[in-house]
Amino acid sequence: MSNPEFKEALNTVTCRVLEQIAFVFPEPADLTAGIVFEDQKMLSVSLSFSGIEHGELSLIIPEEFCLELYANFLGKETQNGISEEEYTDAAKETLNIITGQFLTEIFGDEEQFNLSAPKAEKISKDELFSRIESGIYACSMVEDYPLIVILKLEAKVYGR
Questions:
Q1: For 45-91, how does the pLDDT look when each residue is reduced to its tens digit (9 = 90+)?
Q2: 10 with 137: CB under 8 angstroms?
Q3: Average pLDDT of 38-42?
Q4: Could you count the other beta carbons within 10 Å of the beta carbon of residue 127?
């Protein structure tokens, strides 16, 4: 499968998952079209997978959007004091669902994969762009919030 096909699948699955679980409607976006990151604190959530392919999927989203994600998941208002742990867990669960659907979309539902527990960390703008350059990425926008999904596949090793 080529990079454009992976990128299209990342966009399709991410948009579908966010529509279904968070009731938001992302639109695919061009990262080079002037998306502004300066005013946003970004959270990176990642998990690795192994099976027929080995790699990592990451979701980079503004922390402020994580609050909305959490509220939409549970039908709660964000003014009710959502903790950092709660909104981070919502981002982790979102990535978990995206990863499962992405792997099924690409490799079919007969293949089995092992997924690691998702990890979250705050990242700077420089780290964000460094991570984007290291993999295949897809960018979407939900209102003024950029959402970036990055796929890194490990190189094939003979005998694996």
A1: 999 999 999 999 999 999 989 988 888 877 776 666 778 898 899 99
A2: yes
A3: 81
A4: 14
| Choices 2.60.40.2550, 3.40.1550.10, 3.40.50.720, 3.30.360.10: CATH for 3-153 | 3.40.1550.10
Give the tokens for residue 58.
């990451």
DSSP 20-73: HHH----EEE-TTTT---TT--EEEEEEEEESSS-EEEEEEEEHHHHHHHHHHH
Tokens 């669960």 label which residue? 93
The domain locations on the chain are 3-153
Contact between 87 and 63 under an 8 Å Cβ cutoff? The reply is: yes
